[in-house]
Design goal:
Length: 320
């Protein structure tokens, strides 16, 4: 199901998500606490382009002193959440933790954000997380409502917290990139690699574009380049010989996917029309491969050497 596209059909969901996305621009998702009427008075509610510079000072001046104080307090809480999520080893879910706090914790003041962060570290999935939070804090967070809003927010930006090494294009971050594209509801469109579409402002990538987007994205500048126009991959062996390393490529004779660990693969599917995820065992994946430009851990190189010693049959392929 294409959650991000469904959101565009519901004005109230768009309005709610717009409030959240605006707050990303300001540095923390505090605008959920402002009256919706304030944003409605600004004109037609549309998903904004968060990659464009916004004059936040003028926007702050538009708010009442009380709202400014509230937003400043929320920004401080957001920074505390960021530190706490890093401390428990879950920096990639920082935005999720901020979204939930800003949206559902208006009347709840958290004294220890590390305890809050530990719920994210220990949860099995989002359903388990929300059940834990609802039980601990007395909230009533609905899974479907949160999923729709969160998917829309994540589609509007690129999660800066998912990268482990901004200086080197590496296998772990490729896997995180692929899973983030799935979480963010990226659609399939030929010739795209993750930039926002100018018409509907949603993100798209084609099958090769899922990997090309990561290769071309500059995390420090928060912008896509175009240095890599052709995806070059090398088939290394049968799927049964694949090392258990997130970021390995998979191939089924038509589609390429990215192995993300735990037996799961993410790929952009033309037939479905969006980036999807499934267990490797449920698909028709026959080969594993590596992508040029990606740094893989030593164990992958060792496995390749062992395979080449027994069967010198690997060969490079490319997709524009």
């Amino acid at each position: 199901m294409k959650i991000a596209l469904e959101l565009l059909a519901t004005k109230e969901n768009i309005k709610k998500s717009f409030v959240l996305v605006l707050s990303v621009i300001l540095g923390f998702l505090g605008l959920m606490f402002l009256p919706v009427a304030v944003l409605s008075s600004m004109g037609k509610i549309e998903p904004p382009d968060v990659e464009t510079d916004v004059d936040t000072n003028n926007f702050m001046n538009f708010l009442s002193p009380e709202a400014q104080d509230e937003l400043s307090a929320l920004e401080a809480d957001g920074q505390s959440i960021e530190a706490a999520m890093a401390a428990v080893g879950k920096p990639s879910e920082t935005i999720k933790a901020q979204v939930i706090y800003a949206t559902y914790f208006k009347e709840i003041k958290i004294k220890d954000f590390k305890v809050y962060a530990e719920y994210f570290a220990n949860a099995i999935d989002d359903a388990d997380l929300l059940n834990r939070l609802n039980a601990a804090y007395g909230t009533a967070i609905d899974l479907d409502e949160f999923t729709h809003s969160y998917t829309f927010i994540m589609n509007a930006t690129v999660n800066e917290y998912m990268f482990t090494d901004r200086g080197i294009k590496n296998a772990a971050d490729l896997a995180a990139w692929a899973e983030n594209a799935y979480i963010s509801g990226w659609g399939f469109k030929p010739g795209t690699f993750g930039e926002r579409d100018t018409s509907d402002r949603l993100r798209y990538c084609d099958n090769a574009g899922l990997m090309l987007g990561y290769l071309n994205y500059n995390a420090d500048e928060k912008a896509f380049g175009n240095d890599v126009n052709t995806l070059i991959y090398t088939e290394q062996g049968e799927i049964s010989t694949m090392p258990e390393v997130a970021g390995i490529g998979l191939y089924d004779g038509e589609n390429l996917g990215v192995y993300i660990g735990n037996g799961q693969v993410v790929w952009s599917d033309e037939t479905l029309g969006y980036v999807t995820k499934d267990f490797v065992s449920n698909g028709a994946w026959t080969k594993w491969c590596t992508f040029d430009g990606i740094d893989y851990p030593q164990e992958v190189g060792d496995d390749i050497d062992a395979l080449n010693a027994s069967d010198d049959s690997s060969e490079d392929e490319s997709i524009d």
